[in-house]
Amino acid sequence: MRNWLWLLISATGVAAAEPPPRIEITYIVNRNGSAMAEIVEHLDYGGGNYSLTETWKGKGIYALLGSARRVSQGTIEKNVLKPREFFDERSGRDTARAWFDWKAQTLTMQYKGSKGTEPLPANAQDRLSFFLALSLLPGNGDSVSYSIADGKGLSRHTYKVVGRERVKVPAGEFDAVKVARNSDNNESAELWLSTQHKYIPLRLLVVEKNGDQFDQVATKISQ
User: Does residue 6 surpass a pLDDT of 60?
Assistant: First the structure.
């Protein structure tokens, strides 16, 4: 099954080892079918360095929640994404921060005035960088596990390649590689990675344990 799956995924060629040099994707997030927020993600990449910025703006009644901005910066070395610095700032909340020191193998996180350092776990990512890290997976393996830092703590996620699908989103219809995550608490996440755009996510569907569904779909792609 594993060999058949990877023959299928590789049918159109070997996966790109690097992300695009510049891309901006606008998404709409729907909660249980109702528009919740607009997200704009902007990526710059060159010379092995990446800068990824994500901005959120609430829609409808969710506009009262204000806005959010997340930034991740780091490097990509031999198909391995290594974040260096991450911050998450939101209206009415303290900014959460994380620093990754790959030479010293330490992770430092700061939130609400509390700052601490601990050993850097294997394949560490932040809440934004792991989406970009997933784009390096197709063609290089059938599963990957991340220790994801958000400035407040760590969580462990494992994603597996499910196969290829044709996905239709407001930005268009594209061939995609689908990856999925299942957790022990009845939560799930599925992502569709565009083969046309070097496996950048086109859609993210999260189902929480209470049944709430969050569907993030691309509405515009600019390169």
Answer: no
Contacts of residues 45-48 at CB distance under 8 Å and 24 or more positions apart, as own/partner, are 45/18, 45/19, 45/20, 45/21, 45/76, 46/21, 48/75, 48/76, 48/77
Six-digit token string for 148? 């994801």
Q: Judge whether 83 and 150 are in contact, CB under 8 Å.
A: no
* pLDDT at res. 74: 98
Tokens read off for 186: 């009845």
Residues 206, 98: Cα–Cα separation, whole Å? 24
Question: Quick one: tokens of 10?
Answer: 């590789």
Rounded Cα–Cα distance for residues 184 and 55 (Å): 30
* Entry pTM: 0.87
Contact 11, 195 (CB under 8 A): no
Would you give the distance in Å from CA 119 to the centre of its chain?
23
Q: How far apart are CA 199 and CA 136, in angstroms?
A: 7
Q: In a 10 Å sphere around its CB, with 0-12 CB exposed, 13-18 middle and 19+ buried, how is residue 16 labelled?
A: middle
> What would the two tokens of residue 14 be?
């070997």
Residue 217 Cα distances to 26, 30, 47, 110, 203, angstroms: 8, 8, 30, 31, 4
